[in-house]
From TrEMBL:
<feature type="domain" description="Tify">
    <location>
        <begin position="10"/>
        <end position="45"/>
    </location>
</feature>
<keyword id="KW-0804">Transcription</keyword>
<dbReference type="GO" id="GO:0003677">
    <property type="term" value="F:DNA binding"/>
</dbReference>
<feature type="domain" description="CCT">
    <location>
        <begin position="77"/>
        <end position="119"/>
    </location>
</feature>
<dbReference type="Pfam" id="PF06200">
    <property type="entry name" value="tify"/>
</dbReference>
<dbReference type="Pfam" id="PF06203">
    <property type="entry name" value="CCT"/>
</dbReference>
<dbReference type="GO" id="GO:0006355">
    <property type="term" value="P:regulation of DNA-templated transcription"/>
</dbReference>
<protein>
    <submittedName>
        <fullName>GATA transcription factor 24</fullName>
    </submittedName>
</protein>
<dbReference type="GO" id="GO:0005634">
    <property type="term" value="C:nucleus"/>
</dbReference>
<keyword id="KW-0863">Zinc-finger</keyword>
<feature type="region of interest" description="Disordered">
    <location>
        <begin position="110"/>
        <end position="143"/>
    </location>
</feature>
<dbReference type="InterPro" id="IPR010399">
    <property type="entry name" value="Tify_dom"/>
</dbReference>
<keyword id="KW-0862">Zinc</keyword>
<keyword id="KW-0238">DNA-binding</keyword>
<feature type="compositionally biased region" description="Polar residues">
    <location>
        <begin position="115"/>
        <end position="137"/>
    </location>
</feature>
<dbReference type="InterPro" id="IPR045280">
    <property type="entry name" value="TIFY-like"/>
</dbReference>
<keyword id="KW-0805">Transcription regulation</keyword>
């Protein structure tokens, strides 16, 4: 998404630059029209005519840079990432324990062609007849 740049002449005065990028609005005070022109040229080669006044931009949800802290410094970011990784290890460890218990139960269960089967139906089938329909007794041949 391309950033939207406008010099707001309404609320903050003529020396205010408003940038809208990825749904966030940034407002900079004390920005000259020459700097706005330079930013527009960098972003897409768009020039604002010098004689035409720029319309005021009044979005409903302004987010000023003073309201939110800037990016974390490298040591702060590293410490934050370490805390996140430690918490993630604990979360994954709990899931691994549950999985091994379930795996043990699954390994003990009866299977037929990869599908879990009831042990009761298997016992009934093996005691009544074999695969060929014989009841366990050999037929005698007569010569």
């Amino acid at each position: 998404m391309a950033p939207v740049v406008a010099a707001a002449a309404g609320e903050g005065g003529p020396d205010q630059l408003t940038l809208s990028f990825q749904g966030e609005v940034f407002v900079f005070d004390s920005v000259s029209p020459e700097k706005v022109q330079a930013v527009l040229l960098l972003l897409g080669g768009y020039e604002v005519p010098t004689g035409v006044p720029t319309p005021g931009m009044t979005p409903t949800n302004h987010r000023y840079l003073g309201d939110y802290p800037g990016r974390l410094s490298q040591p702060q970011r590293a410490a934050s990432l370490n805390r996140f990784r430690e918490k993630r290890k604990e979360r994954c460890f709990d899931k691994k324990i549950r999985y091994t218990v379930r795996k043990e139960v699954a390994l003990r269960m009866q299977r037929k062609k990869g599908q879990f089967t009831s042990s009761k139906s298997d016992e009934l089938g093996s005691s009544s007849a074999d695969w060929n329909g014989n009841s366990g007794q050999e037929e005698q041949e007569t010569t």
